[in-house]
Structures are given as structure tokens and as C-alpha cells.
Amino acid sequence: MTTESLSVAAYESQAKQFKPEQGLAATNSNDVRLFLYDWFTHFEHAAGVDFYLSHLEDKNMSVTFPGQAPLTSHADFAKWYDNLLAQTLWNFHDVSALQIKRTAPQEFLASFLVNWYGEVKSNSDQLAGWQSRSDSFLYHHKLRQTWTVKVGDRLVIQELVVTGGGAPSPIQ
User: Fold this and answer.
1) CATH match for 27-164 among 3.30.200.20, 1.20.120.530, 3.30.70.100, 3.10.450.50
2) What is the distance between the alpha carbons of residues 38 and 157, in angstroms, rounded to a whole number?
3) pTM for the complete prediction?
């Protein structure tokens, strides 16, 4: 369907969803995209934990992974991240099906799929929990992540939920 075949109201509605309501300098969905890719790039380069902590809400934080208790503080996340680095040699995140929706003037909801690839250390005491196949140290997990991101002086993740890759997006 071309834009000429849309009614004027439908055409303008489609275009206005991107209008910067809070000025040209306001954070928009492309800023959230950039942040999301930067987040995963830092994982792939084994960045220091301080990068993540500066982008995670500490008081009301909730980071949830399948089969684990939620991480609710910076200390919880730092412990989880230290374990990730201790158990793996490398990892890579292939992000797809990214959807971003503004849910409040200073809040976004992002949902996307991640094909997470990596290699667990052969001497890991958690080998079975990381492996995708019992005959390989390489792993591949397809996951859905859904983030609630707050806008302030920087983007901050308040809630991060990881589910199986077959879970539907909450953004319609």
C-alpha cells in the first residue's frame, strides 16, 4: 500500500507517531535502539560491571531470567555478571524483531528477540546449565527480552524480563 492510497487521517496518524512532542532534543525510540545495541556490545567485550550498573535502576530494579530468582539490586546484578564472566569464554547477541513503544513521556517499552551465542568454559561447574547440546561447549539460546526503560539524564533499565524465544511480544 502506497501513502497515496491511505486516507489523509491514516497517513498523518502514521507520520505523527514520530513527532517529537517534547522538542527536538528529547529522547526518542532511536536513542533506545542505540542504547540497546550498546548494552549488548559491552557484553561482547566483557566490559566492567560499572557500565551496566550505571544503566540499571537500583531501588526498583527487576531483572528476571528463566528459572532464577529476580535480581533486585546492583549487588545481585554484579554477582550474576561475575558468574557470567567466570563461566564463559565469549558471547555474542544477535538482536532481531525489535519493537519499541513510548509508554509515558519519560518511559519506553522495548521487546526483541536475541539469539545468544557463546562458549562455556570446559571446566565450568555449571556446564549443563549453559550448554545447548551435551556434546558441545558452544551454546545458542533463543530468548525474548522485554525492557522498561526510564529517561532521565541517561537511559536506565527499571525492568528487564528474559523469557523463551517463543514468547509473544507484549507490544502489539
Assistant:
1) 3.10.450.50
2) 13
3) 0.85
